[in-house]
Specification:
Elements: H1 27-34, H2 40-45, H3 53-59, E1 64-77, E2 80-92, E3 97-105, H4 108-121, E4 124-125, E5 127-128, E6 147-151, E7 154-159, E8 167-168, H5 171-180, E9 185-190, H6 196-212, H7 217-223, E10 226-227, H8 239-279
Helix pairs in contact: 1-3, 4-8, 5-6
Length: 280
């Protein structure tokens, strides 16, 4: 049996303009690059796995990110003290999309960047509505129904609330719900909630339940349940606008990462000074 040669990859022409200087490596990335897929909802509903964070950067330029937890672990070895960092980051556009990622690394800056990229590839589209029986505003401001998520010993439960209550939850899920686009909710939790990582994953797993529960047309109409953004965000037609937005976004990310890295270096230095003082 004769083996067929693998066809060469499509190479970008020299005069072909790329708004983000990005060559896609997956089928989904090529569809976004060519303009066949113009919204993130279409990308998530396709049969292709989201593996490139540049897809989210292009389809959702207003995406925000936040570092939830930075765990610094020091270990003494024969060659000296070794420090590693475990970063947990969350991303969201505040309008129906949210994702979370966790990465371990030797340096703070690259680990934060990698955690944000992993969070973008893990992004999900949630359902929102007016699920509280005490409210009849028919605006998608809260959860459509009660959801529960679990991770480790932590079990988090979130219920729909009427408009104006706000996020009556703890600090960790409040950040995630806010980035997801939920402005009103009640929440309870059980277990060791001081473990930030498990509490964060429990919240994400609870929000993922909104995508798994099937909703009838009558329920969606009665509770005004929508999936994803209130108004669809389409890909910009101007390459210059895309490039400018991405450059501004990358500059903000680099500034926040450098600030966080400086704070962690100061904490590590203060900890090492204390260890030296104790040894004396």
């Amino acid at each position: 049996m004769a083996f067929q040669k693998r066809p060469p990859r499509r190479e970008r022409k020299k005069d072909e303009f790329s708004p983000v200087d990005w060559i896609p490596r997956t089928k989904l990335g090529r569809l976004v690059y060519e303009g066949t897929i113009t919204t993130l909802s279409e990308a998530l509903k396709s049969n292709y796995v989201l593996k490139e964070p540049e897809i989210v950067d292009i389809l959702l330029p207003e995406m925000e990110d936040e570092v939830l937890d930075v765990n610094m672990v020091q270990r003494m070895t024969d060659s000296g003290r070794r420090v590693r960092f475990a970063i947990t980051a969350v991303v969201g556009n505040g309008d129906g999309f949210v994702g979370m990622g966790r990465i371990k690394g030797k340096e703070v800056g690259p680990s934060i960047r990698k955690a944000i990229d992993v969070a973008k590839t893990n992004i999900i589209e949630i359902k929102r509505g007016c699920g509280s029986w005490e409210c009849g505003c028919m605006n998608p401001h809260t959860l459509p129904f009660k959801v529960t998520g679990k991770s480790g010993s932590v079990k988090a439960t979130f219920s729909p609330s009427p408009q104006g209550v706000g996020l009556a939850v703890a600090d960790i899920p409040k950040k995630i719900l806010k980035l997801a686009g939920i402005s009103d909710a009640w929440g309870t939790s059980k277990g060791h909630t001081k473990t930030t990582v498990n509490y964060s994953f429990a919240t994400i797993n609870a929000l993922r339940q909104t995508t798994l529960v099937k909703v009838t047309d009558e329920q969606a109409k009665r509770l005004n349940i929508i999936s994803g953004p209130v108004e669809a965000v389409f890909l910009e037609t101007s390459p210059q606008d895309i490039k400018r937005n991405l450059e501004e976004k990358k500059a903000k990310e680099e500034e926040s990462i450098k600030q966080k890295e400086t704070e962690l270096q100061e904490q590590a230095k203060a900890g090492s000074d204390k260890v030296k003082e104790g040894a004396k």
